[in-house]
Amino acid sequence: MGSVGRKLLISGKGRCNITNTIAATKDFVSHFGKNGRFLYQALNSFSTSDTVAFFNKRGMATKIDKDFKIFPTSDMAEEVLSVLTRYLKENSVDIRQGVIIKNINTENNKIVSISTAHGDIKCKAVILATGGKSYPKTGSTGDGYIYAKKTRSQYHPAETRTRPCHCKRKRHKKNYKGSAPEMPSSLYILTVKKIAEDKNDAVFTENGLSGPAIYNLTRKIDITAPDMELAIDFRPDIEQHLLDKELAEYINDNSRKKIKKTCLKLSFSRSC
Ligand SMILES: Cc1cc2nc3c(=O)[nH]c(=O)nc-3n(C[C@H](O)[C@H](O)[C@H](O)COP(=O)(O)OP(=O)(O)OC[C@H]3O[C@@H](n4cnc5c(N)ncnc54)[C@H](O)[C@@H]3O)c2cc1C
User: Fold this and answer.
1) Over the stretch 158-214, which tens digit does the pLDDT of each residue have?
2) Beta bridge partners of 146
């Protein structure tokens, strides 16, 4: 892409939550199911407290938000990116923007060079850090999987763990825009059985829903299952019978308004 860290800049809604307060690696890993074992090596080499120390040492103050998430005190992802790019420069890393890797070339099973639209680069080894498949407009289109498959004998097909939720019915497009902070989202299959729920931020997008709550939910479900239904509680602060009363009173006072508009008004009056 034309600039570095595009995904990083949109992470945490532009605030970039850099790590969390879970100090024990075992506790951290337990949140990822059995695949979490993969994380031990990385986290044992560079723990959550190492991450905080890394940024603090380079002038970025951090704060704990919502019990366990750690953000820059400035709430600006730009500050995180600035620390990281400065670190790369200090270590003489040559950053080439807008250079797309086309191929990794091998000879006798050894890497010899990479091909780019701007010519070949000779090398003996390659670290593939091309990101997952989520949010392709930030540059991570899943190319890395193709190169990994081509060049490595040990290749595990990628399973996209963080995926947005595409809605078949696009009614939300007209009605909601932007984020719905901290709405408990409950995911139901065919409305009968609740299989997961989450209380985090959700974001309405062009095609459906995204954001941490949705990623947490879709991580827990079997994506091969047929149509699913997602239910969002816009008014978690109020009990059902009180909401019924509030709705009846509102309709009484605003009898000329359409029911759809009334529901939208009531659902967003507190949560946004
Ligand atoms: C909306 C959203 C919110 C998020 N919020 C948070 C958060 O608050 N905290 C958190 O920890 N994580 C968050 N994440 C996840 C986090 O952003 C990612 O885990 C992280 O960016 C992954 O880093 P990466 O370097 O592996 O990949 P990426 O950040 O995707 O970077 C991959 C890079 O490789 C480049 N690339 C890809 N293919 C090629 C090619 N063929 N040639 C050359 N270059 C290529 C891309 O242009 C890109 O620069 C969020 C993600 C999203 C989408």
Assistant:
1) 555 567 777 777 666 666 666 565 566 666 555 457 777 887 777 777 778 887 788
2) none
Indicate the class that CATH gives domain 1-95. alpha beta
Q: Which of 207, 121, 129, 199 is nearest to 164 (CA)?
A: 207
Two tokens at 240?
A: 């059902």
Q: In what order do the strands lie in the sheet with 101-107?
A: 101-107, 110-116, 119-122
Which of helix, strand or coil describes residue 223? Answer: coil
The answer to whether the CB of 15 falls within 8 A of the CB of 76 is yes
Contact yes or no for 175/264 (Cβ under 8 A)? yes
CA of 248 to the centre of ligand 1 (A): 47
Give the contacts of 156 (CB within 8 A, at least 6 positions apart).
Answer: none
Bridge partners (DSSP) listed for residue 178: 204
Pocket test for ligand 1, best of 46, 140, 141 (most atoms within 8 A of CB): 140
Tokens read off for 232: 């969002």
DSSP string of 231-251, one letter each residue: EE-S-TTS-HHHHHHHHHHHH
10 lines ligand 1 (CB under 6 A): yes
Tokens of 135: 């949010």
Per-residue pLDDT reduced to its tens digit, 97-152: 999 888 889 898 888 999 998 899 999 988 888 887 777 788 888 777 778 777 76
Q: Which of 87, 37, 34 is nearest to 60 (CA)?
A: 87
Exposure string for 214-238, b = 16+ CB within 10 A, e = fewer: bbbbbbeeeeeeeebebebebbeee
